[in-house]
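ok trying this again, last paste got cut off
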Amino acid sequence: MINASVGFRCGLKQPTERNENLTLADMLDANLMNADLRGVDLSSANLTGACLRGANLREEKRIYCAILRGTKLHKADLRGADLTGADLYKVDYKVDLSGANLGESSLRGADLHGANLSGAILYNAS
């Protein structure tokens, strides 16, 4: 089990436990590189400055309203993920967001160069 209040700066190398609840967790600058986060509830979690490079969040439906400011997502798998209302300010975006729900999310300052947005939902995104 993951304890959201303890040392996320150390990083996670192994896949996380399915159905883990990290709602509202404070994970500033967390190293989640290559982590398998499918089934982990990250809704409203603070992942500011976190490294999610190569992380697997495919089809994850519980990332809505997460704070992902300055998060590194290079080669992360977010196909079909629900990022509704997420704060994606200045996110590193060389990532596959095809079919992802980005409705009502904040994309200000985000670098979308190299991102795959085919089929993504961008309703009311700003």
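PB: full thing came through this time. The two ends are 36 Å apart (CA to CA).
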